[in-house]
Amino acid sequence: xxxxxxxxxxxxxxxxxxxxxxxxxxxxxLLKSIDLAGAAVVICPSYPSLPVLxxxxxxxxxxxxxxxxxxxxxxxxxxxxxxxxxxxxFVEWCIVGHSEQxxxxxxxxxxxxxxxxxxxxxxxxxxxxxxxxxxxxxxxETVSKxxxxxxxxxxxxxxxxxxxxxxxxxxxxAISSNQPDFLPDPADTAGTMLLIRKLAAAQFxxxxxxxxxxxxxxSVSSSNVGQYIKEPGVNGVLVGSASTHPRQxxxxxxxxxxxxxx
Length: 262
Ligand code: PGA
Hints:
Largest sheet: 8 strands, parallel, barrel
Radius of gyration: 17 Å
Bound molecules: 2-phosphoglycolic acid
Number of helices: 11
Strand order of the largest sheet: 1-2-3-4-5-6-7-8
Strand content: 15-25%
Low-confidence stretches: none
Order of helices and strands: EHEHEHEHHEHHEHHEHEH
């Protein structure tokens, strides 16, 4: 299927195993009668739920599974980490470089770039998160931060791999758990997302860069998603908190399908 819009649900460490299974059952029911056309839905539960949810979603074409992170090494003495070959039987997607993981593990842009490339080598599509902190925004450093992150990522890409890459632009200060006082202006986020695509185009040409999916993430809800998605060049959203509420998540999916599928 040619995917032209994507909605990713990042459940973080918010739910029990039972809670994750219940949401999948609810989503399967709610999405049954919806024609998603060119839109795809990915949910990213905790690692221990992946095998059970992969089984539960086996005959379900609409929802695919992603992991929330993965280690860049193939194997080794890395207590508590999970490798790509360990998630590979269960997922088609994987979030890489989420700001919460970057903070915890101090992963560098180079390591994130390497992980994204390793995932692509295994046929798993990386959803690479990047974006600026509140301090960087205040210091007017958004463009330089995002440019550095993108250039480091692109150094490990090829023309043929680029259409498989997904970028999630998440201003870190706008993520709901950081309790933002206000949300970013959709025109500003679309401007940064255009920069992301331009950097890819500068390296691989405009036609290929147009095929790379670029998502917005940060406090997305059913009431604000329309504003972000209707901007040009926005292919979907990465949703944290709101994705743990099945009805709201389906409303978000509906809006994205209506406004972003070209
Ligand atoms: P949020 O999370 O939608 O709750 O802000 C997004 C994310 O951190 O990926």
